[in-house]
Design goal:
heterodimer, A: mainly beta, four-stranded antiparallel beta sheet, 12 strands, globular, B: 112 residues, seven-stranded mixed beta sheet
Chain lengths: 113, 112
C-alpha cells in the first residue's frame, strides 16, 4: 500500500532560520505531490503542488519544494521563516490513476520570535 | 467568502446514535471528498463523489455512508457511532480527481 512519511513530527525554529521539512513516499509509479498547510484555528489549504515539469515547485508565501524522483522525496523548503509560518504541514501523494490523496501524519512547525 | 462549508463545526453524539454531518460548496466542483482525521494522525480518505458517482475506499467501515443529493451538498452519515469514530471529519472539493483544491473547516465529532 502507498504510504507517505514525514520524518519530523515537531520542528521548532527561530525567526529567519531556514526550513526544510522532509517527505518521502513509497509508491514507485507516477505520482502527483502536494503540500498543505493548516494555520492555527484554520482549515487546510494548498501550499504547492507538483504534477510534471520542473521538479522545483514554488508555492505561496515563499515556500518551495523539490521533487527528487530517485529518492522518492518531495521536501518543503523556505529560506527564512517568519513567526506567521507556525502551522501544521502535511505532505500528500496521489498515485496517477487513483482518485484520492494519501497524506503524511503532518509536521507541527513552531517559529519562535 | 467561505467556499466549502461544514455544519456543524462541533457535534456530540451518543454511542450508537446516528449522526449526519453536512458539507456544502459554492465552487461547483465535480468532486467532493470526506476524510477522517484522528488526533496526531494523517487524514484518511473515507469516500468521494465524482458528480453522482460514489466511490468507497476499501477499508471504510459499512457504518459510514454518504449522500450527494446535488452538486453543492454532500452528507456523511454514521449509522451507529462508536467511541473509535471520534475524530475530525474533513470535507474537500476539487474540479477533477487526483487533487484536493479546497478544504472545509471540519466537523469535530465527539462520541459519549
Amino acid at each position: 500500500a502507498q504510504s507517505v512519511s514525514q520524518h519530523n513530527h515537531h520542528v521548532i525554529l527561530s525567526e529567519a532560520a531556514s526550513l526544510e521539512l522532509g517527505c518521502n513516499y513509497s509508491y514507485g509509479g507516477t505520482v502527483n505531490l502536494f503540500w498543505y498547510v493548516q494555520y492555527p484555528g484554520q482549515h487546510l489549504q494548498l501550499l504547492l503542488k507538483y504534477f510534471s515539469g520542473d521538479p522545483l515547485v514554488k508555492g505561496i508565501k515563499g515556500f518551495e519544494a523539490e521533487f527528487i524522483k530517485s529518492k522518492f522525496s518531495f521536501n518543503l523548503r523556505k529560506p527564512s521563516v517568519q513567526w506567521s509560518d507556525t502551522a501544521e504541514y502535511f505532505c500528500a501523494v496521489n498515485r496517477v490513476g487513483a482518485d484520492g490523496l494519501t497524506f503524511g501524519k503532518g509536521t507541527h512547525l513552531i517559529i519562535q520570535p | 467568502d467561505a467556499m466549502v462549508i461544514q455544519n456543524p463545526r462541533y457535534q456530540v453524539t451518543q454511542f450508537g446514535k446516528p449522526v449526519t454531518l453536512s458539507c456544502s460548496q459554492t465552487l461547483n466542483h465535480n468532486v467532493m471528498y470526506w476524510y477522517q482525521q484522528k488526533s496526531s494522525q494523517a487524514p484518511k480518505l473515507l469516500f468521494h463523489y465524482y458528480d453522482k458517482d460514489f466511490n468507497n475506499e476499501a477499508d471504510t467501515p459499512d457504518n459510514f455512508q454518504s449522500r450527494r443529493p446535488n452538486t453543492s451538498f454532500c452528507f456523511l452519515d454514521i449509522r451507529s457511532p462508536g467511541l473509535g469514530d471520534a475524530a475530525m471529519y474533513l470535507c474537500a472539493t476539487s474540479r477533477d480527481l487526483g487533487q484536493l483544491d479546497y478544504f472545509g473547516p471540519g466537523t469535530r465529532l465527539t462520541v459519549t
